[in-house]
Amino acid sequence: MPLDVILLVLFGALLHATWNAIVKAGSDKSLDAALISAGGAVSALPFLAFLPLPHASAWPFIGASAILQFAYFQLVAAAYRAGDIGLVYPLMRGCAPLLIAATSGFILQENLSGGALAGTITISAGVLTLALEARRGSSRAVVLSLANACVIASYTYVDGIGARISGNAVSYTLWMSLLPPVLLFSWAASQRGAFAVVRHVRRNWWRGLIGGAGSIASYGLALWAMTKAPVATVAALRETAILFALVISITVFKEKASIWRYIAGVVIALGGLILKLA
C-alpha cells in the first residue's frame, strides 16, 4: 500500500476516533449519533455544486448504503446500552475487517498477498484484544456487536464498489451522506416525539456539526483509499482508530488503561507496519 494512502487513512482514523469521542461524551447517544450524521450531510452540501454527479450505476449503491448506515447507528446505540464500550467497540470494529478479508476474494475477486493478509489479521487481533479488558458485558451485547460487524462489512463492500464505479469517490461520499440523517431523525421523532428531538438539536447542534464534518471526512478518505488499494487492507488499517481512541480515553476522559490496551496498541501498530511492508 502506498505511503500517501496509509497516511491519509490514518488521518481518517484519527477523525473517526474523534467523532466517536464526541458521541461518547454526550448525554443522549442515540440523538448525538443522529446529529453527527446530520452534521456530515450539512458539511457535504456546499461542495456538491462543484463536483460531478456519481455515475447512474452508483445510485443504487448510495441508496443501499443509506439503509445500512441507518442500521449501523441503531445497532451502535443498542449495543452500548447493553454492554461496556470496552467490549462492544472492539468486537464491532475488529470482526468487520476479518469478515471482509475472509470474503473479499469471492465478492470482489481481490486476492490479498500473504503480507496484506497477515497485516489485516494482526490489526484485527489487536482490536479484538481490547475486548479482554471489558468489565461488563452480556450475551445481548455480544450478539448486537457481532451483528453490527456484519453491517459494517456490508456497507464497506457496498461503498467500496459504489465509489469505484461512481467516477468520483468524493462525490459519491458526499451524496451518500445525505439520506441517513433523514432516516435517523424520522425514526427518532416517531419513537420519542418531535419536541424532544428539536430540543436536543437546539442545545447540541454544534456537536453534530463538528463531529459530522470529521465523520464525513474520515469515511471519504477511506473510500478514496479503496479506489487505490484493496478494500480489505484499507478496512483493516482504518481500525487503527482504536489507537487514537486509546489516547483520547486517557488524556480527555481520564480513564485508566489496563495492560490489554497497551498490548493491543503494540499489536495494531505492528499490523500497520506489516501492511506498509506488504
UniProtKB/TrEMBL annotation:
Pfam families: EamA. The lineage of its organism: Bacteria, Pseudomonadati, Pseudomonadota, Alphaproteobacteria, Hyphomicrobiales. This is EamA family transporter. InterPro entries: EamA_dom, EmrE-like, Small_drug/metabolite_transptr. It is found in: Cell membrane. It is a multi-pass membrane protein. Its main location: membrane. The keyword Transmembrane helix applies. The chain crosses the membrane at residues 6-23, 35-53, 59-80, 87-108, 114-134, 141-158, 178-198, 205-225, 231-252, 259-277. Keywords: Cell inner membrane, Cell membrane, Lipid A biosynthesis, Lipid biosynthesis, Lipid metabolism, Lipopolysaccharide biosynthesis, Membrane, Transmembrane, Transmembrane helix. Residues 141-274 form the EamA domain. It comes from Rhizobium aouanii.
